[in-house]
Design a protein that fits this description.
57 residues, mainly alpha, 3 helices
């Protein structure tokens, strides 16, 4: 399995795949921080260009 990076994490989320705590643990702190900032941005501003618009429960 390839090492999870920020770009791979974004692709995984856009595809609708799950993102586990183990996945988060495998990201570097810089990648994790950038990922969280992007998720916050998508949620606050409702970026309609992305596929991440709702949280699956």
């Amino acid at each position: 399995m390839t090492k999870l990076t920020y770009a791979n994490a974004i692709k995984k989320l856009e595809a609708g795949d799950s993102f586990t705590l183990q996945d988060m643990k495998n990201l570097s702190y810089a990648d994790l921080d950038k990922l969280f900032e992007d998720i916050k941005y998508w949620k606050v501003y409702g970026n309609v260009d992305t596929k991440i618009n709702e949280v699956k429960r």
